[in-house]
Amino acid sequence: MTTSREMHLIAYLKTGPTANHMGAWRHPEADLQNVLTPGYYEHLARVLENGRFDGCFFADGLGLHDIYNGGYQTRLQLGGQISFLDPMMVLPLMARATTHLGICTTLSTTFHQPYNLARMLSSLDILSGGRVAWNIVTSTRREEALNFGMDDLPTRDERYDRADEVVEACCALWDCWEEGSLVMDKENGLMVDASKVHYANYEGRWTKTRGPLTIPRSPQGRPVLMQAGSSPRGRDFAARWAEVIFVPLNDKAELRAFREDIAARMSAVGRDPAKCAILPSLRVVVGETESIAEEKAAYLDSLIDPELVIAARSSEIGVDLAQPMKDIDAIGKARGTQGMHESFARVQRLMEQENIGFEDALRRQSRRGTLVGTAQSIVDQMQDLFDGEACDGFIIEQMVVPSSLEEFCRTIVPELQKRGLLRREYRGTTLRENLQ
Ligand SMILES: Cc1cc2nc3c(=O)[nH]c(=O)nc-3n(C[C@H](O)[C@H](O)[C@H](O)COP(=O)(O)O)c2cc1C
Question: Is residue 52 in contact with ligand 1, taking CB distance under 6 Å?
Answer without folding.
Answer: no
